[in-house]
UniProtKB/TrEMBL annotation:
Gene Ontology biological process terms from the UniProt entry: protein catabolic process; proteolysis
Biased segments, Polar residues type: 410-423
Catalytic activity, as annotated: Hydrolysis of proteins in presence of ATP
Source species, domain of life: Bacteria
Protein name per UniProt: endopeptidase La
Organism: Psittacicella hinzii
Bilayer-crossing regions: none
InterPro entries found in the cross-reference section: Lon_proteolytic, Lon_Prtase, Ribosomal_Su5_D2-typ_SF, Ribsml_uS5_D2-typ_fold_subgr
E.C. numbers: 3.4.21.53
Length: 820
């Protein structure tokens, strides 16, 4: 079913602010407590109170095997949050805070894999972690190592024990050098008398830090050796993947040494003195922790696979995402409430026109039963077909039944008043609006909007249902911000909510939060957690478009690239594409493209011009093949035609199937000679049955076409059609949502190409009068019509047959044309 999306479904800021209004004072107080934590305190409490260490009895110089366990109950955090707001429990609060912190540092069986590393079952542990939390991950492992040593009875930090080990190694190696004999592996192990765990993050990744420094004898100076970290037993060395990849030769040598369990003095000597170093073998029972991220993951995996047995390596991966129920829960009731309010507004316009002896002829198919206005409107069709002034979207949030609430949209007020806000009930005041229906303008004073009790109940239930999950998302954001904040900067709840919206837009999904930690850290550094500073930064970013995008936009606006936005054309459709920017610090963007088609009644093929000259790849070619085969499948008899499809003014190679629906529309228009509205752009993939499938870059594509239309002047007929399955990916700019709310721009969601055809041509896809079509069969090739079929004079099916037959008749035989 084709849907025209309401602004109530699209305004993310509005939705988040409204659910915040549902927070009780206890909820807000809980958020305050969580935001007051800091990295050092949080990790100390987590390690001290919730990680259990079990050790076997230590034997002289040999460390016992250990077991680590996280003593946090596997309960749903959402339930724990709601329980805490009902009763005060200090211990439960501490446990909850520990759970929130643990999510960022303990994941994917982390403790089991770290235990295997310390127990020498593996040699390397690769940890995937965001750059902004690497410092915290190191701090967590240092505190964990200290707790292990305390369990052994050593009340010392890692540094003294590490230095003590290295001093003992140095003494033993010096003894071997003086005696001029080989130094065996067992002797080195026995030489280290300090049985402790150590965790070290070296400042530099170089040979001397790892293997030490060997200095040969000179005149009266004896040969000497200063040990490196690899000579220390039971020491975990932590190095970043980027450091390893910058010196792959040394990284390979490090990994091979860990696998072999020893190294020689030659490796500690420089290139000039290697030949002078004696054959002294030094034991290596150190471990390696590698911090990596998505950018260097592939190169790191190649390095590891080349230099060390895969069974000696374990990896910890983090999937940082959570479901977000708010928009999924409220979308349907919000839409229903908006449509009912819109219906009442239209009724006000109609009644006002009657009072002035004017008749407004509304389309018959917007009523529940055709030609029976007394039965009421089909609200969805009414909103889709009747373009009235809207501006209702701020007036559709309710906290009490049968009462219209206007939310306070002053975010700074919410951020300064940390507590649940009881929204004062305001009756809907009558306002003067200029209504435009079927080109008739009138000054209208709408009647008081009364929302059905059933709808307000649905919305209340939806908000209550989404509250636990929303509270969890907010508290998780506050917890993360407390770990990332610098100094004593305070954290405002409004900042947290604003960052949640930015995450949704950054990841282009409204039903799942993908925690882009480094992005959050970036905004926190610039804004220092202050809401007003953050809004200034976001506003500047919105205005800082890519120069490449600006060039393409100006190319269209200056007339060098032809994109029509307010006409009707045969065989031409505005498609949308997604492009990767080549500029540092600039986001990817969308662009409008014009797809054209010429068709002839001659047996042949559909020629993809772009593919023929290798400007388009295989996916684009497949899209045009699907368009052709689908159209042919609509007819019981074989229809012969040839066509050429082209992306006009395309000069760079592209690929993808997101223009499948646009290609179909261009071909269908060319075959039927039915003109297409140029004010509506399309994006979407399609299958062989005409079903519309998901595509990427939805928001950027919409923004690209909106910017063109807005620069030329919005005329209330323009918009974009997207796949219905992509609704959850909508996170639009505020100015676009405002234009949609004012009725100046429209957004449609479709799940079948038949709906798109009817929207763009105002002609039915098929009618009951059509024969020679497979659409009368029970199949998935056609869905319910967007238009009224009662008085339809033509359809796509009949137009194609008539046009092809007329074209064939006009040409006649070659002999007739010869003597004409």
């Amino acid at each position: 079913m084709l849907q025209k999306l309401t602004p109530a479904e699209l305004d993310l800021d509005f939705q988040l602010e409204r659910v915040w209004q549902k927070f009780s004072p206890a909820h807000v107080h809980l958020c305050q407590l969580i935001s007051q934590q800091n990295l050092e305190t949080s990790l100390s409490q987590l390690v001290a109170n919730y990680i259990k260490v079990e050790l076997n009895t230590a034997q002289a110089t040999k460390l016992p095997k250990l077991t680590l366990d996280l003593e946090l109950e596997a309960q749903a955090i959402e339930q724990a949050l709601m329980q805490l707001t009902k009763q005060s429990d200090t211990q439960a609060l501490q446990t909850l805070q520990a759970q929130l912190v643990a999510q960022w540092f303990i994941y994917d069986a982390f403790l089991d894999k770290f235990t295997a590393l310390l127990n020498k079952q593996t040699k390397v542990l690769a940890i995937r972690q965001s750059n902004s939390l690497v410092k915290g991950q190191h701090l967590f492992l240092q505190k964990l190592t200290s707790k292990l040593n305390q369990a052994l009875g050593h009340e010392i930090s890692f540094a003294p024990s590490l230095y003590s080990k290295l001093e003992q190694v140095q003494a033993q190696v010096q003894q071997a050098l003086n005696a001029n004999h080989k130094f065996s592996l067992p002797e080195i192990i026995q030489a280290q008398q300090v049985a402790t765990y150590d965790y070290c993050v070296p400042e530099n990744f170089n040979r001397s830090a790892l293997f030490g420094i060997y200095t040969p004898a000179k005149q009266e100076q004896e040969a000497s050796y200063t040990p490196g970290l690899l000579a220390s037993n039971n020491t975990t060395i932590a190095i970043g993947a980027n450091q390893l990849l910058q010196n792959p030769k040394l990284a390979s040598e490090l990994l091979q040494t860990l696998a072999q369990g020893n190294f020689t003095l030659q490796q500690a000597a420089n290139s000039k003195t290697q030949d002078l170093a004696p054959e002294v073998t030094i034991a290596c029972q150190a471990n390696l922790v590698i911090m990596f991220n998505g950018e260097n993951e592939e190169a790191l995996l190649t390095l590891l696979a080349t230099n060390i047995d895969k069974y000696l390596v374990q990896a910890v991966y983090k999937s940082s995402n959570n479901r977000f129920d708010l928009f999924t829960a409220t979308r349907t009731p919000d839409r229903e409430i908006f449509l009912q309010a819109y219906e009442q507004q239209v009724n006000s316009v109609v009644e006002s026109a009657k009072a002035e002896n004017e008749e407004l002829e509304l389309p018959e198919h917007i009523y529940k039963e055709s030609a029976k206005p007394e039965k009421g409107y089909d609200r969805s069709k009414l909103f889709s077909h009747v373009n009235a002034d809207q501006e209702l979207w701020h007036e559709i949030s309710y906290t009490q039944l049968n009462s219209l609430q206007k939310l306070n949209h002053n975010q700074s007020h919410l951020s300064s008043q940390e507590g649940a806000q009881d929204i004062s009930q305001e009756s809907s005041q009558e306002s003067t609006q200029e209504a435009k229906i079927n080109s008739i303008s009138a000054k209208v004073v709408p009647a008081h909007i009364k929302i059905e009790k059933e709808l307000t109940t649905k919305l209340e239930q939806a908000l209550s249902q989404a509250l636990p999950n929303s509270l969890y998302i907010v508290t998780k954001m506050l917890s993360l911000m407390s770990l990332l904040k610098e100094g004593e900067n305070s954290i405002e709840s409004a900042t947290a909510r604003s960052l949640i919206v930015q995450l949704l837009r950054y990841n282009e999904t409204s039903n799942r939060i993908f925690w882009a930690v480094d992005k959050i850290a970036y905004y926190l550094r610039l804004s220092q957690g202050n809401y007003h500073k953050l809004q200034t930064i976001l506003a500047q970013e919105a205005n800082l478009r890519s120069t490449e995008y600006e060039s393409l936009l100006n190319f269209v606006l200056d007339g060098y690239q032809t994109i029509y936005t307010n006409e009707m054309k045969v065989g031409m459709v505005n498609g949308l594409a997604f492009l990767d920017t080549n500029e540092i610090g600039k986001e990817d963007f969308g662009t409008a493209i014009r797809i054209s088609c010429l068709a002839h009644n001659e047996a042949g093929q559909t020629l993809d011009v772009d593919s023929e000259i290798e400007l388009a790849g295989g996916l684009a070619r497949r899209a045009n093949i699907i368009s052709t085969t689908y159209i042919k499948s609509l007819f019981t008899d074989n229809i012969d035609f040839s066509a050429s499809i082209l992306t006009e003014q395309l000069y760079d190679p592209t690929d993808g199937d997101s223009a499948s629906v646009a290609s179909f529309m261009a071909l269908a228009s060319a075959l039927s000679q039915l003109p297409v509205k140029q004010g509506i752009a399309l994006t979407g993939s399609m299958d062989q049955f005409g079903n519309i499938q998901a595509v990427g870059g939805i928001n950027q594509k919409i923004e690209a076409f909106y910017d063109i239309c807005q620069a030329r002047g919005l005329d209330r007929s323009q918009g974009v059609v997207i796949p219905a399955v992509n609704i959850n990916n909508l996170c639009l700019r505020a100015d676009i949502v405002t234009s949609i709310a004012q009725g100046d721009f429209h957004l449609f969601a479709a799940d079948h190409v038949s709906q798109v055809f009817e929207l763009l041509t105002d002609v039915p896809f098929a009618t009951d009068k059509d024969d020679k079509t497979t659409l009368n069969d029970e199949n998935d090739k056609y869905q319910s019509s967007y238009l009224d079929l009662t008085n339809a004079q033509t359809s796509l099916i009949s137009a194609i047959l008539q046009n092809l037959q007329a074209d064939k008749s006009s040409r006649g035989s070659w002999l007739a044309r010869l003597f004409a």
